[in-house]
Specification:
The protein is an alpha/beta fold and 309 residues long. It is built from seven helices and eight strands. The relative contact order is 0.20.
């Protein structure tokens, strides 16, 4: 079960206290040479090699982490994001909402104001399968089923501690798709929130000229309370912010690159929050042209520049 409350350096889950992040260590070259000219040449060559290695690491990180549809573009939020967190104590839910909002602002993603209709749902429950089945029964339009219902059943049956469903629209315009927020009728699944709402997103119109521009109409993030032990609320909130703002491959093999994605990949000491690489990835996603065939290379270049700063 998720424990309520947090300490000054972060929240706790299952009574595990957060630890402060260690300061990043600066990269340094070897000691001074007795031959200044040769040393300058060696440093220059090493710097070039290091930048090539960094560029290769960035390219691999972006390609492995973001989900790309064919040779088109990466989906993102183009409509104002209205997050809703349910199934947690209010203070904990507010904490996660704040972290999502901070990440969105830093990335340049659009945020809705007060009184908005939810479109980014973060649901915490000990019975995720029941919650999702009841929610789907209540709202048959909950999931985009253009690829059939098999992916929906796979999502419902997932055993991941945190799993995500992305409703993606193509282009601009089309028929609206409505998604209702769950309410007290789903109490059997262990989720109680006040009120409800309707999400009006943009549907798919295959006749659009700009049919390769993909964007989120709604995103559902499900936290399985039984499987998120031993991590801080800060870590959990950072992971939710990343997967809620970008379509992420949860099984991405990024090697030694520091990223909050290591949270569920068996790494002994995962980051305490979003890393510089995570923030650069989100910034690049939201500061490039989502309808451009050059978006992939533009994101890679943007991430590289951010990491080098």
């Amino acid at each position: 079960m998720l424990a309520a409350g947090w300490v000054a350096v972060g929240c706790t889950i299952a009574g595990v206290r957060a630890t402060a992040a260690r300061p990043a260590q600066a990269l340094a070259h070897g000691g001074a040479s007795q031959q200044p000219t040769a040393s300058v040449g060696q440093v220059t060559i090493q710097a070039l090699r290091d930048r090539h290695a960094l560029r290769a690491a960035v390219d691999h990180f972006v390609f492995s982490t973001l989900v790309l549809f064919g040779h088109d573009t990466y989906p993102r939020w183009d409509r104002p994001i209205c997050p809703l967190v349910a199934g947690l104590p209010k203070n904990d839910g507010d904490f996660i909402l704040a972290r999502i909002s901070q990440a969105a602002r830093a990335a340049g993603a659009p945020l809705a104001g007060r009184g908005c209709h939810p479109d980014l749902f973060v649901m915490a429950t000990s019975r995720p399968k029941l919650l999702l089945r009841l929610w789907w029964k209540r709202d048959p339009n909950l999931y985009n089923t253009h690829d059939g219902i098999a992916p929906v059943w796979q999502f419902i049956a997932s055993h991941r501690p945190v799993h995500v469903w992305y409703n993606i629209a193509l282009g601009c315009g089309g028929s609206p798709m409505s998604t209702s927020a769950p309410d007290g009728s789903l109490a059997a699944a262990g989720v109680l929130i006040s009120g409800g709402g309707t999400v009006c997103g943009q549907g798919v119109d295959t006749l659009l000229v700009n049919a390769t521009a993909r964007k989120f109409s709604s995103v559902i993030v499900v936290i399985n309370k039984r499987r998120v032990h031993g991590m801080t609320y800060g870590q959990l909130a950072a992971y939710i912010a990343l997967v809620g703002l970008a379509q992420i491959n949860p099984d991405a093999k990024v090697g030694a690159v520091p990223t909050i994605l290591h949270l569920f990949q068996g790494v002994q000491h995962p980051p305490s929050g979003l890393t510089a690489w995570d923030r650069a990835l989100l910034y690049g996603l939201y500061h490039t042209n989502s309808a451009s065939t050059l978006q992939v290379s533009e994101i890679n270049l943007s991430v590289l520049k951010k990491i080098e700063q």
